[in-house]
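Forum: Protein Structure Q&A
Topic: Joint prediction for protein chains with partners

I've read a bunch of threads here and the consensus seems to be that you should model interacting components together rather than docking separate models afterwards. I'd like to see that in practice. Below is the full input, 463 residues plus whatever partners are listed. Could one of the regulars post the assembled result?
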Amino acid sequence: MTEKKPVLGVTLYSFTNEWVVKAYTLEELLATVAENKLGPAVEVVGFQSFRSYPNVPQDFANDFRKLMDRYGLIPSCLGANMDFGRRPGRLMTDDEKIEYLQRQIDSAVRLGFPVLRLQTSVGTKILEKFVPLLERANLHMGFELHAPLSMDNPEVIEFRETFDRLQTPSLGFIPDFSTSMTSVPEGIWQELRDLGVQEELISEAKDVWLHTDTIPDKFKGIGGLVQKYSVPPELIGKLNGTMTMFGHMPPENWREIMPYVRHIHGKFYHVNEDGIEPSIPYPRLMQVLLDAGYSGTISAEWEGHSYTREPMALGEVKAWRRMCNRLLTLD
Amino acid sequence: MADTFKLIEKDSLRANDGGFEFLVHLNWYRSLPLSCVVDLRVKVDGVEIDPQVISFGINGHAYPLADLENHFDEFWFIQDGARVIVAQPGLVAVGETHEVWVETSVFAPYIPIGPGKFLTVTSNLSSTQVAA
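Posted by a regular:
Agreed with the consensus. Here's the joint model:
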């Protein structure tokens, strides 16, 4: 029996900086992915890459499929969103949510994506109503597990129990490596330095991140620093963000949810000249995936665009790919 | 080197008989329903414009700011500059140089941060341009 290995690829979301200034057309971006051997798996955030989304006309979808074929790429995951706060004064009803989801299911089917990503903020109560829509479309829905969610979070456990109760392969998870980091990315601190935050505060904030476990405790620690260093109000949100966007769960905790994994977000911020992502333990994470026999898709998800507007995604994604090829011995 | 993101599009200031307009970009990573634009403030040469004379031009339509919340099924595509249309004559004329300032607040209708509350991002930028 040959060893099972993940299928690598990229999410076009990595190229957010380039996309928002129209440095590429969709075709140019797909061609760039193919030329640089960053495929075959391609993930797309519907509300970022497709103008007509959540709707996608059939002729547009046909053209997209032809482009993917021409460049030897395969659709991995369509990033959907449940915009339940979009109506003035009230949240969307269940019927409205289902209508909004159905449009995105139809778009995924037309475009050829096998997995639809959704966030856990939709809750578990409505999932029972999603299942027949997904089964009819032969589509899997993956709920994004991003920091600060961890595998033992009560919300995540509730999702797992709901998947078990509904006994359907249509529902699962899309874990993100942001759940298992060893440090906050240096680019995040650099942005704060550039905004005038003192080195001493940054050093103490790093300690808070490393040595406190729960989000309330982390916020308490940051609150103390805000007082001590008289941090201006406009920076408090950014400082709190350093505590929520990066989890530090041991990679081995991924083992228990592997049967539910439908796709993976290979989050990263920087791969250095030694081929290492200093803030994310890629060797351990990849070993967990290999041990589990995971043969699904992983997207390179560069999120440095959260702190820089520099159009530098291509170099970073290529470096990520060299690192992952090495760790998975895919060369 | 490709362009980097700017909240106000360069060289977009236009003057006309009824007032002036310029293009503003969405400071988020994905397209949003128009109802998620909760605030848009404009200053010209440091003087704040009355929100009642500001309209928001997108997808070939122009809506008063206060009307945006009703357009929850129309989207501001991430790559499109929206026209900020100010119906106030006499402030900006063709050929003049002005400092335009804008502050936008948009919320992510899928990221709740409390009961009925969603993650809101506020950004501002000042840009000095010659009106065309």
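Chain A touches chain B at residues 13, 16-23, 45, 47-48, 51, 53, 81-88, 91, 119, 121, 305, 309-311 (CB under 8 Å).
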